[in-house]
Amino acid sequence: MKYTIQVLGLLLFTLCLNAQDSTVVKKRIYTTKPINGSEGPTINGLIEESSWDLVEWSGDFIENEPDENTPPSEQTKFKILYDQKYLYIAYRCYDSEPSKIEKRLSRRDGFAGDWVEINLDSYHDKRTGFSFTITAAGVKGDEFISDNGNNWDGSWNPIWYTATNIDDEGWTAEVKIPLSQLKFGKSKEQIWGLQVNRRFFRKEERSVWQRVPQDAPGWVSEFGELHGLINIEPQKQLEIQPFVVTQYDTFPEEDGNPFRDGDDFKLNGGLDAKIGITNDLTMDLTVNPDFGQVEADPAAIALDGFQIFFREQRPFFVENKNIFDYRFANGQDNVFYSRRIGRSPQGSIGSSPVNTEFIDRPTNTTILGAAKFSGKTKNGWSIGVLESVTQREIAKVEDADGNRRETIVEPLTNYFVGRVQKDFNNRNTYLGGIFTATNRNFGDILNIDFDDPETDETSELVGLRENNLNFLRKSAYTAGLDFRHNWKDRNYFIEGNLVTSHVEGSKEAIEATQNELTHLFQRVDADHVEVDPNRTSLTGTGGKLTGGKSGGGNWRYTAGVFWRSPELELNDVGFLRQADDIRQFANIRYLFLKPTKFYRRANLNFEQTSAFDFEGNFNRIQYEFNGFINYKNNWWTEVGAAHKPRIYTNTVLRGGPRWRFSEENFAFLFFGSDSRKKFNFTMGYVNSGARQNNFTFHRYVLRMRYQPFNALSISLNPEFERNPNKTQYVTEVDFAGTPRYITARIDQQTLSASIRLNYNINPNLTIQYYGQPFISRGTYTDFNYVNNPIASDLNERVTLYDDNQISFADDLYSVDENLDGNVDYTIDNPDFAFVQFRSNLVLRWEYIPGSEIFLVWSQGVNGLGDPGDHLFRSLDNQIFGQQPENTFLIKATYRFVL
Length: 898
Hints:
It comes from Aquimarina amphilecti. By secondary structure, this protein is mainly β. Among the domains are: about 30-235, Immunoglobulin-like (Sandwich); about 305-445 and about 455-520 and about 535-555 and about 565-580, no CATH class. Helices cover about 5% and strands about 50% of the residues. The protein is globular and about 100 Å long.
């Protein structure tokens, strides 16, 4: 810990000592004018209406990439008009060879081919903005910009109108943006941040209206300004979007199973709404939402026991997610993880079902309704409030005689998230906070005494004799504070946050929390934590403090420390992989900002990290170097390597003692061709190896994309991984009253391939296909038990069983460790072969702006193959040889704008 503080202090001292200004660039100003007493331009891409003559063209664009601050290959100019309802933009994109303008079609937010975009910082907070992109083919792209350009959220889909045209001078575009889709405060004259950005496809060149130096600390903070918006009234948005869904499922019929008769039909409906409380703040509502058109999650398998993070894809939760984001430490840990809402039911069925019992278990928890209040005010307040209620879910079990029992597998649950930030100091500083609450309504379930003769066996609680929800916490609360301060033209920063969590529940629930892999209070060699079976609550903290140089010149550096106390628990509505962790990091990067005849851009990066637990154990140190280069021909290479001389972990033995891995080295190499070409590819290889062959890792990546013509694109991304490990954890057993931690050599192989096809009939009518076969196989040999878990020599760390100690029969390993002729313990055969195929075929038609029809065909196959087979045989037997489950869905929405 002393080392951590010294490194952090030295870096922050250097940060302050070397503060210097970046390049000073004069802010450009464009002054618009209103359309008074006449109709706005007709949006046809021709720029022929007389109303455009009210304002002047603005041009003189400057190249931004690759050769910043030089004249672009082709110039661009634009005009902006407005009335009380709309903002109008006209573009003239000159091109000396109009026949070579790239008009590639894509789905919305595809950004293919030549395009031009306008970025509007209507809050003028120099951190956030709205981006509207139009391609030469007429495809829209729209994104909400946050974190000064470090985050672009493509899930934002406003209603706006556009058209393009190609002529002898290049191409033109007209855009009409309803003011109701933008957010701005009420004042006599508005001043907005403004940037116009063009992609010249043939040379992969970006030119901008307002110069942004390559060493700038961000994007939005460097915008020019839009003046002349006089007396425009904030528009209160009101959109109502009802939807109806018909769904037909087919699946393999099972004889005698009343829940699996071969097919099922559902008719459903719901409502989404967007209500402008003020022009700054919007209320989003959803009642009985349906996400059937959302792409399936990729397949994954984790042998380390930790939960797998999946990105959010549901539109209601994705839009404006940046406001609710609160990454308090590193990686994916977040106080709010929206995938918890509508998760798979967590409860078990109760008593173990037998072969004559059939189960109908819901796959997801039903979201009864959700409301989201979010936005940012003119005076710098960012506000987000989310409230959601999920339904109590019941699993049904029926035996061959028709006797049925029901088990509650998820209680009625309420989720609440509140988030706020306030800008200060000319938008260079912000302070913020977050609060979340999860409350589960168990009713009388947890209080029923089934041994009491007075218990009403005719109630709806029949069959709940095993309390299968007693591991769930009754309530969970988190609160946090965060800040960031920028200085020296935002080139330098310091930021930090603090999180505290508090969970409550029964003794059984809190004891289960203490024993979870996230916490592991039961660790046999830990003096700073221990399981208390009488606790009914748990309170923990976490946070981070970082600082660094984010702009100005060629150098960037950052240093910081973050922590998660052993008691920290976020997984009711957040995401926390591991508690009891303190990490220190420091990195330095050099940017090659000026292109040469050899490369367009490049960078080199070095990073050092170390880790401790709250007992003071020094668990890890790592040194990593990586670099990236984009060559003049637009090919690229990324390379990196790392050395880990010290690797200890508290989690590998799942509650057992601290474990040591052998010293590790890893390296990776990726390279790819020019992504503009009709055919382009990426190839990559990752290799990791530990001393004494403790473990190795090989990953092979190939990504191919082909666009035979403008309307069609096809991609295939196969990956193969092989991960042999001599000490893969298997189980814990009891040997004469002493715990034995069993590990073994595993040969794990995983093969997957994601396949995508996009066919664009026109910008508003697309067909999209996604499919992924996935196979993972693991075979175990050379079983051993842990002897000295922190020994530096692998042969002292574990002891192999000899042939006289272990035998295998009937899918079970029997161990006679002391060779007395009696079986001391048994080990279930851990070999596995998991096979899965998921696919989605979606036809999407936006028949009028904001209103859509989806035709969806989803297909899935899950199977358990033979671990002794090779991967392709499992693919044939378990995917091609099985009847799939199919879902056919029609969803229609209509957006009323009032």
